[in-house]
Amino acid sequence: MVDKDADIVAAQSEGQFTKAYDYDLIVIGAGSGGVRAGRIAAGYGARVAVIEGDRPGGTCVIRGCVPKKLLVYGASFAGEAEDAAGFGWQIEGLSHSWSDLIAAKDKETARLEGVYRTLLKNAGADLIEGWGHLKGPHEVEVGDTIYTAKRILIAVGGQPSTPDVPGLAEYAITSNEALDLHKRPDHIVIYGSGYIALEFAGIFRAFGSKVDLIYRADLPLRGFDMDVREHIAEALRDRGINLISGRIIAEVKKTAEGHVVTLDDGSVLSPDEVMAATGRAPNINGLGLEAAAIETNARGAIKVDEWSQTSAASVFAVGDVTDRINLTPVAIAEGHAFADTIYGDMPRAVNYDAVPSAVFSQPNIASVGLSQEQAEEVYGRVQIFESRFRAMKNTLSGRPEKTYMKLIVDADTQKILGVHMVGPDAAEIMQGMAIAVKMGARKSDFDAVIGIHPSAAEEFVTMRTPRA
After folding, report:
1. Closest Cα to residue 51, out of 158, 157, 133?
2. For a designed S-S bond to 27, which of 38, 402, 427, 465 qualifies (C-beta 3.0 to 4.6 A apart)?
């Protein structure tokens, strides 16, 4: 437990809920993690205020995973229509309205914003609209008003980070603006090779845009399993995305016709739009962390302990602003654990082992556990089981794309250390694999399962021969 705040272990003790402050808890940020923490705390009887300067719902609901996934769904119909001919469908006059898609997306995000407002209201938490700034370890200023609380939870998330390249910040869009473009670009340059870059590359390409994906490394998705990186690079090329690896953007200029993008080798591209998808950074600007003596690391992330407590005993932080594992479900888990620990008399910390994740590129990528490189570093001897195959659907559609699956196994104990997949429905399949990995499944457990035939997922339980 923590020593800085002894009553963390006695959440319902006398004085836990006190009238000495305006609120027992002030949450700065009405995203997924903040709203979860606020409403669970309020359910335990805490007087809660949640402060939001933009729209309740945060990055995920308003400008991240939800609207992006809606666009991915829309983009996927292009491939379905293309594949349909192999099954006898004759589709004539196929067209798409980008503006109609954006309008439908906006309608859904507005609905979800309303859901988040209702969740807070029904929980009994106050929603204070405006930008919150710390004035001390127990004080938050919104506009001209200062609110006080026994504890403060910072859940402000992250924001797009743009490299210091001449013209890039001035003329490039980020994932925020890409979701709201009124017109689909005929040609777009995307700078970066992380999950955001790959997902938007797939979206724009499927709707008919020419896409140039530029990145410094040899392969996309730094930090992912090497076999996955190699496989997705081939799949992206097969989907018509132009990969420009080993290059950086030297300059971006705006012209009457569009943009001029100059690379470090002197080559020039002339797209309609340029998108910077070069990562995200903790959203701490203007937050007033210094007023509460809250420490940050070299990346600007708020330092926290296992209980999400900062260097200020009364201030906690969850989600992307802490730069632990930057995933919405992780932020939700952190927010819930915080509320249970402080207000529910159920002290618990989040376990970050075997957190599954997905990249909604086309095709999808999903994984849980360690990459081969990580497993070899930690465990030494590992066995690799893998399968590359052309999905049954593609045998008639004519699409050459292959699905890739990989199991990483500890050679000594036969424990499953990592599971990886590139292919249709990878995220849906991986959720089940994550349960097995979290429970400590061994290769023999997978071998004992009878597969569902014919399905792609059955490959995970039919791999018998390790890679040489």
Report:
1. 133
2. 38
CATH 3.50.50.60 fits 6-61+100-159+281-343, yes or no: yes
Q: What's the chain's length in residues?
A: 468
pLDDT in tens, 4-14: 444 444 443 44
Confidence of residue 19 (pLDDT cuts 50, 70, 90): confident
Whether residue 354 contacts residue 436, with contact meaning beta carbons closer than 8 Å, is answered with no
Please report, for the chain, the start and end positions of each structural domain, with discontinuous segments joined by +. Answer: 6-61+100-159+281-343, 168-278, 357-461
Dump pLDDT digits (tens) for 296-323.
Answer: 999 999 999 999 999 999 999 999 999 9
CATH of 168-278, one of 1.10.357.10, 3.50.50.60, 3.40.50.300, 2.60.40.3500: 3.50.50.60
Asked if pLDDT for residue 390 goes beyond 70, the answer is yes
> How confident is the prediction for the chain on average, in pLDDT?
95
pLDDT in the model for residue 45: 97
For position 169, what pLDDT does the model report? 96
Q: Which of 96, 182, 259, 453 is catalytic?
A: 453
Look up 453 and say whether it is catalytic: yes
d(CA 295, CA 262): 39
Domain 357-461: state its class. Answer: alpha beta
Spatial CA neighbour of 216 closest among 193, 190, 241, 188 = 193
pTM: 0.94
